[in-house]
């Protein structure tokens, strides 16, 4: 029965409602479990789904629910419960009214009319309780199903990670003798969860080239990188001699320090050193010969230089001597991600896959990584939201769009220009071809049955069949963010005077702190990792209190803060709509949906469990939550992490249109340059204003001229 109801629902649901098959199946189950007795019951069960799935008015929803109820009854898919009703019936015999008093008096001795009323109320109450219980049981079933789906998703991700080859140094590359290190894949297809991400496309990776892989959030860039790293594509065995390494997002917590974790990727070196130690303490007469072989091999693989090389890479990524030899379990997630990056750089694979490598890196580390990628001789593929990083390191761009991979020569700026020109030319060619086809088709239709012109008609039909059709240019849907503008407040807004803060007695994090924020402020806070940038943001939002100094805040001021930590706090089992409704109860469904739409979360995205969303889509949810209270000052910590470049551009436009104050911690050069008009940096526990733009700051930093 449920399948029939499910089919019926599909026919009744209007096209504007974007409901998934899973959602409609769930709705049909509700109708089976809790049989509606009228259209109002249908509206109570399904109304919220129609509101969430499409912008329908209450009147439209009522009409749909009435139609569904009528059709269910007509198709005999529901059984109406019998109700007690009052009706006029013919009496079986005459009743003498004067005799009724006697009977009424006798009945009143044993029956009270109010008891009948109470009994009816109790019956109705029991029915309501049973109905509520059925709903609760159905909800619990759906929760169990959702949890099982989530656990299955997590298990799949873990299995995919286990199939990714570990970071291992290859000293012997005999299997590469005489073989090219290019990867050329024809008709590449990638299907995930029954959905085709790529279909019959070509991918060509020439050894030594630096590629930028670009495309919208959620389109499948990370899935493509995973497939390349796992050799999961057709004819992958042809390329097994090529070492492809995907940087792990974050190394697991262990008792080992970063230097040890980097060095352990060289398994041959560790095994040789272990054998050397055993033989040096051995009484075996042949130990000397074996030791000589080991010494020669250690010399050949330059084992004595390995530790210095590992330390140099870690230093380049910002590790101090203290952090370098600290147990990894005591490091933050950002530092553990750097350890993963250091391991990959130490291994030097033939093809290095970097997924958002600049996340968690300060400007010094980003510049060091730029130099490393440019100068390494191997193939590198980079997925990054940082336009300037792509401009500096990439000489090729691969555009992932519409299940195809399109190559472009040059960096990201050149790709944008080249793609725009290509689209203009393709659009002209498409329009010209369509006119030609229309003219030929008109001739065919006009003279199809004219015997005298049959040969001309046939020649045109053959010409159309042989013609290589030019694809229509499909525009990328524009990504738009809309930040609500707050009401104006008179200054002063937010100010710290002679601030001093320490976590441990006598060890200042910030001192001599003088800083003010107004509604016109557009401030970027920069500096090395660990100098106190996040601490400053916490002081501004009163999540931390000054140890000494004065803090002033306008009593009417609303402040909101966006951090990557907020993304981690999302309930992944909930949909974006449920997340917003739970966090900020009391608003109408239309208000929640409209607010999410302001951040590019439309249709089914609002109803999809958050564990199925990309990192960029989760960031959008966090943006929507951060500005729910319509703040006058918005504080953001690395807001561009996880966003694609189009989303970064949308964020830039939204922030430039925002009439409140901004304080942003970011090392994204393009983002800071286009949003902020002030740069403040932290050095030696002091916050200082830099006189110049971001290019000037970057130059001063590289030349060691920051005071």
From TrEMBL:
This protein's name: ABC transporter domain-containing protein
One function term, GO molecular function aspect: ATP binding
Record's keyword annotation contains ATP-binding: yes
Signal peptide extent: none
Domain of life: Eukaryota
Keywords for this protein: ATP-binding, Coiled coil, Nucleotide-binding, Repeat
InterPro entries: AAA+_ATPase, ABC_tran_Xtn, ABC_transporter-like_ATP-bd, ABC_transporter-like_CS, ABCF
Coiled coil: 272-311
A family per Pfam: ABC_tran
Residue ranges of every copy of the ABC transporter domain listed in the record: 183-427, 494-707
